[in-house]
Model the fold of this input.
Amino acid sequence: MKIAVIGTGYVGLVTGTCFAETGNDVICVDINTTIVEKLNAGQITIYEPGLEKLFLRNQKEGRLHFTTSLKAGIEGAQIIFLALPTPPGEDGSADLKYILGVAHDLGGMIDPKGYVVIVDKSTVPVGTADKVKAAILKTDANLSEAFDVVSNPEFLREGVAVDDFMKPDRVVIGTGSEKAKKMMNELFIPFVRQGNPIIFMDEKSAELTKYAANAFLATKISFMNEIAQLCERLGADVDMVRKGMGSDERIGRRFLFPGIGYGGSCFPKDVQALAKSAGEAGYDFKLLEAVMLVNKKQKQHLLPKIKNWFQSDLKGKKIALWGLAYKPNTDDIREAPALDIIEALLEAGAQITAYDPEAMKNVKQLLGDRIQFSDRQYDALIDADALVIATEWSEFRTPDFSKISSLLKNKVIFDGRNLFDLHKMEELGFHYESVGRKTVNP
Done:
């Protein structure tokens, strides 16, 4: 098939590249000239493990192209994917100006004698498919038979997005059109050869499914963070509680890890947008309000521990920070808990030297010289008064503790991701504080 993908951000680039990998002719459109020039020159513009190899291969084979021209991009396309930003507005609702703007432009370009499927790939509020259709028809009422609007929400996890796309556990497609259903089924069949389902439903149900899934996962995280808070007060171990809960097949093991809150491009804005949509529908979604409040508080969870250790005097103290991205295997710092920690420590007068395998460039652009950066993991520890861990990168899981001991002024670690075994930290003589577990204080 000939596929057009409008938007070359995280979702758009992964979507276009993976469709090209199954033999489709894909052209991606973006208004950012610099990004398009880089992509056409073979320079990938996002960090995502495994993506660059597919990107370069399909570009070489002539199946993956990039342009700034919307008209050229959609020419001859059978399916057009809208992978555009839906940032939160001031009131928390998803801003559809980019999607509806492109929909309006498409209205002047669609062949009234042809047929094309237009797919909302972005995470959008319930009713967006209807709004996209209305925006197109507003430009030309005679186009009603020339297109269908379909909802096909993405379920990509940053860090494993290629695997998620190529081997999805399910594909959700919202459409009431048999013609569109047939085309979408043909497009996605190569991705579900192992038997995972393509689930067809109406457009509104598909739109809500994405929000519901992300909100539920965020709820699991906030619930476990609440349990962790209770564990610290009662003397229980949240890791043991997590294992006991997770072995129940009705609950499952995933997303039960406590920490310093969720971040990223999806959970924060999607939970907020779903709560806003509920309010607009006349329903007070109290659970989601609690999820957001718990997460906001959890990002500050380590700070009282740090201040207590330093007897509320952090002025001039040097803190080493491992991890800036909101999760490992990405350079995404949107809503990253590390940023909240940095701001609070700076406000208290501390100096910070940070290390992250991928996200330092993005934080440098955001914070400039307000903190220091280290090109090497252990160099960040030199003469530091304590180490704070904010992201669970694999290379942080089994560090050289003797080197940590020799570089830190104090053998003190505040771990926001529960990476280390309590008994081991006690044996090594560290003061070690984590989330929902006892404090190790030799």
